[in-house]
What does this fold into?
Amino acid sequence: MLPNFSDEHEMFRDTLRDFVEREIKPYVLEWEMEGAVPRDLFEQLGELGFLGVRLPTEYGGGGLDFWYTTILIQELMRGGTIGVPVAVMAHAEFATMLISRGGSDRVKEEFLHDATAGKKIGALGVSEPNAGSDVAAISTRAVRDGDDYIVNGSKTFITNGTISDYITTAVRTGGPGYGGISLLVIPADTPGLSRSRLRKIGTHASDTAEIAFEDCRVPADYLLGGENGGFKLIMQGFEGERLVLSIIASMQMRLMSEAARDYGLERKVFGQYLLGFQVWQHRLADVLTKTEAAETLAYRAIDLYVRGEPCDRIVSMAKLFACETALDVARECAQIFGGMSHMEECVMARLYRDSLALTIGAGSSEVMRELIARSSGLVPEK
It folds into this structure.
């Protein structure tokens, strides 16, 4: 189903597009070099109401649906780097939505107002050195001690890891497997918490860190969803995360195809424009077809998600197809740029190398295929 965006949706889009043109696009290369977006970007987005799109109105949010989040992602992508929407979504959609879903009234009151205003930045801490897509294998442990939990362990590949003020953290409070997992909101200034920035080959404007917990004492009422009830919350959050990556990948393909078209219409070789060669007309025709297919499947998944219907299978398909296809599209579109596709100042170069991480985040492509197979009756009964 294609979305029927209303006048309100389009006003939201126009405001965002203007903001991106003025406050993001001119600074992208600087942020890519620095390895993170500045804190004041979150505050600016918060002032305009863009950080709490889906959060309850009583906590400063907009109380809107995922179609507004879709527009937010699409327009942030126009800044020319995946790093900015990844940083914003890790805060607003991943870390903070879990607090909204599972936190007590007191915890919501403490964190959500500042989160929607951009005064506090959130991170989601799930992945560990020995547990990525296999969430049930996490080993970071939280032991109850009176009114607190004492947390020991580590997390890695954490977006916003070094700039965050709180980390919504998956911890083990019970036995092995998914049944022993809980979620704790851990303030970043907790004694015993340390973090270090990781260097990546892509998404440079998105800060990524390794975080260590050594006897970190965290109030027990920062628990989300009850003890040993974290896995269900994480899985619910994964639907939103996978939709986010589906839209990022779809929009990335659209931006790459636009850049390749524009370059092909202005660059001449052997006396004619690149797009004067039929081979490039046909290759970019394939790119456009793949882009439309990925976006349409993502929209189908979002429609089910917004209407509250079962959608895990379609969401997994949308994430798998968009992210895998983005790799193919990146290779095709980079080729038309020749050597420029390896220059950092070229938007094609940034989108090209950023595409590599899409098939891993929020569950790898292999996990998506497994979910699709199981939910489609492709696995024989034992």
Observations:
- Residues 123-228 form a domain with the Butyryl-CoA Dehydrogenase, subunit A; domain 2 fold (CATH 2.40.110.10).
- The chain has a mean pLDDT of 96.
